[in-house]
Amino acid sequence: MQGVPFKDRAARRFAHQPFGQMPWLTVGKLSIFESGAILLHPGELRETLLPRDAATRSEVTQWHFAALNSVGMAKLP
C-alpha cells in the first residue's frame, strides 16, 4: 500500500489531520482524526454502541483496541 507523498498532500488535509493523512471525520464544527477516535465518537452518542456500565463498556473497548491493533498484522506475509 502506498500513500500520498508528504509534499503532495493538500492543505485541507492538514486542516483536519496534523500529519495530512486520512481518515478524518467532520461532524458540524467537530473534526476528528485517527480511526479509533472516529469509531468512538458514535459510541459516545449511543449507549447501544458503547454501553455505560463499566463491565460491558470495558469489553467493547478491548475489542475496539484489538481490532485496531490487528489491521497491521493482516498486512504481514
Can you tell me about this structure?
The chain is mostly helical and 77 residues long. The chain has a domain at 23-74. Helices cover 49% and strands 10% of the residues. A two-stranded antiparallel ribbon has the order 1-2. A hairpin with a 2-residue loop joins strand 1 (24-27) and strand 2 (30-33). The protein starts with 10 loop residues before the first helix and ends with a helix.
Features:
single chain, 77 residues, mainly alpha, two-stranded antiparallel ribbon, 3 helices, 2 strands, 49% helix, 10% strand
DSSP, total strands = 2
Give the overall average pLDDT.
Answer: 83
Query: What separation lies between the terminal Cα atoms?
Result: 13 Å
> Uncertain regions: pLDDT < 50 for 5+ in a row?
none
Q: How many alpha or pi helices?
A: 3
Query: Rg from C-alpha positions?
Result: 15 Å
Structural class assignment? mainly alpha
Helix content: 40-55%
List the helices and strands and how they pair.
Elements (H helix, E strand, L loop, with lengths): L10 H6 L7 E4 L2 E4 L1 H11 L8 H21 L3
Briefly summarize what is shown:
The chain has helices at residues 11-16, 35-45, 54-74, and strands at 24-27, 30-33. The chain has 77 residues and is mainly α. The protein has a domain at 23-74.
